[in-house]
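From the shared-data thread, chain only:
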Amino acid sequence: MSMLAVTTVDLARIQFATTSLYHFLFVPLTLGLAPLVAVMQTLWYRGRGDHWLRLTRFFGTLMLINFAIGVATGLVQEFQFGMNWSVYSTYVGDVFGAPLAIEGLAAFMLESTFLGLWIFGWDRLPRRVHLATIWLLALGTWLSAFFIIVANSWMQRPVGSHVVDGRAELTDVWALMTNRFGIAAFTHVILVGLTTAAAIVFGVGCWHLVRGRNRELFRPAVKLALIVGVPISALNLAVGSHLGVVVTDYQPMKIAATEAQWTTCQPCSFSLFQIGGFSSDDETPSFSIQIPRLLSVLATGSLDGQVQGMNELQQQDEATFGPGDYTPPIRTAYWSMRIMAYAGTLVFLVFALGAFLLWRGRLETTRWFLWAGVLTIPLPYIAALAGWVLSEVGRQPWIVWGLLKTADANSPSVSTSTIAFSLAVFAALYGALAVVDFVLMRRYARLDPPELGGDGDEFSLPAVEY
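Structure, as tokens:
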């Protein structure tokens, strides 16, 4: 029975990880592409040229495909809370109820309502009103992200609540909404979204330029992507570094695990790459490339900052919470952090080089770089997924930090076979959706944007009198 329970928890974790990571593939692009499309439509509205309207409709189509599949996959997660994690749902229900209710009843309704108005209002609404709908859609997506991150950040740093009779009860809504962990995480996620959208616009534009198609149309799109991408991706790296300081304050074990740091150090080096050193039986890596003091900077913001080791933290946790293993999966934490950081840095370097080539007037003639721009498209997704893995896996063994362990939070009445069957169904369904999404995104990204005008042309200018 003990082995059965462990297997059930593991399968439930795998299922939630599968659905969460798949859903998170669509979140960054929605958060970033909605405001970029709004900027394009604003430029058209302000008379900067009809090519901005064509770009608005072109990238708006990609946004709609991404949004539709993202909503469908996100709904599944809601049901898993009550089905596979009933103990967890009972424990956190009073706290999660507020932000998730606001997200569903206010933020999601805001974005879905104005998305509908934007889709069907082209020839029915005045231009100014129609422009407002896309900006309100962008605002709705950001509000949805905020309230969801508020809920998740409470799991990372429980605030504004206390435990009564084995259940967490909300006592301070303001503390919940202004959680320092949540503010830092929300800022990071928004910047990730804008970086992802800029990479998509840049990559698609580079593909059209390198193929010699629609050069006059996609040249300004590439320029806009670089104007957004260079400062945003740089700022994202800085905010991500600051988030490391926040995590150190509240989850020191996670930070120690990302470096496979077994003993306390001051100052601390950051290893670019290492072999070995990921288990208590083998704490010393056989090979490591290190940058002196960098871990101290990332974890504390100081060149001489102290980072506690996992051995010392394990002893502290055992004294506080009782016997048990309080170290997360170290190898996963170590590599997910580096995949996130390296991919994010590479995106910034591509944007920076693109801006330099654009400034020198050589962007369109440097074919190898245009192909590099196309190949950059997956990098923000890889970085975002690795960051999400680090955030959730690095919190283990806690599902709510310091209050509730993951092993104690699943539904005791759900059998292993039931979860295994549903996991197989989800894997098949999501695999099919992945193919559909890739085919649709690739097809519409490769199309020539239709010309404006003409009776019955869906891309014709609105016929409303202004």
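Residues 2-251+328-445 form one domain.
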